[in-house]
Amino acid sequence: MKVLVTGGLGFIGSHTVVELQNEGYEVVIIDDCSNSSEKVLDGITAITGKRPLFEKIDLKEKSKVEDFFKRHTDVQGVIHFAASKAVGESVEKPLLYYENNIGTLVYLLKELSRKSKSSFIFSSSCTVYGQADTMPITENAPVKAAESPYGNTKQMGEEIIRDTCKVTEGLNAIALRYFNPMGAHPSSEIGELPIGVPQNLVPFITQTGVGLREQLSVFGDDYPTSDGTCVRDYIYVVDLAKAHVVALQRLLGGKNKTNYEVFNVGTGKGSTVLEVIKSFEKVSGKKLNYKIVDRRPGDITSAYADTTLANEELGWKAQFTLDEAMKSAWDWEQKIRS
Ligand code: WQD
């Protein structure tokens, strides 16, 4: 069965391609390599023993998307990762984000609407909840006004899919709201490759550990949490990748309850920034150089998932601990810097 993975050379996309191939799916990747490299194909091949099909296409080029679906009429499922994802950049360049993340989504849905049956998995984000009023966060928590154009593209993306499913027979979709993805494949063949200075906590920690950055700034220790630092739900990327496979299987097997569903994908456990640092120190045996600085504007205090719905409906649960995920991130960082 052929599955299209857009953004399949990226961080979460590449791990999902591995899990799909392990389950026997034939994968075709579309990626424009704007934030990834064709070398990722070698890593996927080394792990799975199979090289996925790959087409370098920019999904903003509508005619190329049309042409792709004419040539691959046997695509039965689409997992759509391709998107721009830097929150700060989205504030500077909103139209770039709306064009990249919304325009491309519309083109893909147009193609899928032409088919008699199709299954679509969308990369959404816990960012749609903003600072939720209660923890853990269930899928019923209200979607708050987006803090950035990036966050808005995830909210709008969900709405566009929901509205399209309502009127398109045969189109079934699931939006997965990720919490904080981290880690790398245990083989260290694929992992996260942030361009420039990492904005996210875990790659900043591992880059500091390996000596690429001098010091980690911890953004605020005066939040109302156990140790004063912010709480997030760090989900291991391999667990997250597997959630995509079971979500796709749910749609392909006709097990979905409605033709548009939403699931949180997290561990259900919140960790503070200082706990994440401790995990790094434990698995690496190194002391991390860090200092407490002012709060980062826009940060919320706390976000962790209620995963009951995904546990019960998808039969999926995160398997790996923070330490295991951190160990994989550290192994990967050391490998790519050696
Ligand atoms: C985690 C924690 C920081 C860096 C991001 C995206 C968001 C969504 C989820 C996709 C926070 C602290 C970080 C550093 C620090 N992604 N931190 N020093 O903020 O939860 O959100 O992932 O949809 O859109 O922005 O993740 O990794 O940036 O931060 O102290 O150098 O680490 O304050 O508490 P965040 P993050």
From TrEMBL:
Pfam families: GDP_Man_Dehyd. GO terms for biological process: galactose metabolic process. The keyword Isomerase applies. Keywords: Carbohydrate metabolism, Isomerase, NAD. Pathway: Carbohydrate metabolism; galactose metabolism. It catalyses: UDP-alpha-D-glucose = UDP-alpha-D-galactose. This is UDP-glucose 4-epimerase.
